[in-house]
Amino acid sequence: MVNIMKGSVKFGVYLPEDLARELEECMDITGIKSKSKIIQEALRLFIIEHRWKAVGKASGIIGIIYDHEVKGVDELLTDIQHDYLDVIITTMHVHLDKRKCMLAIIVKGDTNKIKELLSNIMKIKGVLVARPMLLEIK
Asked: 108 in a domain, yes or no?
C-alpha cells in the first residue's frame, strides 16, 4: 500500500531479522533516530551508486584490491589499463601488505567503456574486490 502525503510517499518495507538488527546497530552508531531518515539516505546512496550506468558519461574511481602473489595479475591489470586509455585519467597503486595491493583507477568518459573496463577487471584471477565509485556527468 502506498500513501502519498504532502510531497512524500509512504510505503511498508519488510526486512529479515538480521538486517533489521544491523539497522538498529547502525542507528545507534550514527545517532540517527529515524528509520525513515536512514532508509532515505541508503536509497540516495544506492541511486547515486547505480545511476551512472544508465547515462552516457561518468567520472570517478574504480577501487581494486588484488593478491599480487597470483601469477600474472599485475601484468593483466596493466594490459587492460592500456586498452582503456580513452577513459582512464590516472591510477594509483598502494601496497597494503606482503600479498595485497590496492589499485585506484580514476576514470572519466563513456559509461559503456567504463562498464566494459570494470567487467574485464573483475574477470582477472587474483582480483579480490573491484568496486566502482562513479557519478554521472550531466
From this structure: yes
Shared domain for 86 and 46, answered yes or no, is: no
pLDDT of 136 reads: 73
Residue 88 has pLDDT above 90, yes or no: yes
Instruction: Give the domain range for residue 86.
Output: 56-136
- Beta-strand relationship, 127-136 and 57-67: antiparallel
Q: What is the pTM of this model?
A: 0.73
Instruction: Note whether 41 and 83 are same-domain residues.
Output: no
Dist. CA 64–CA 61, nearest whole Å: 9
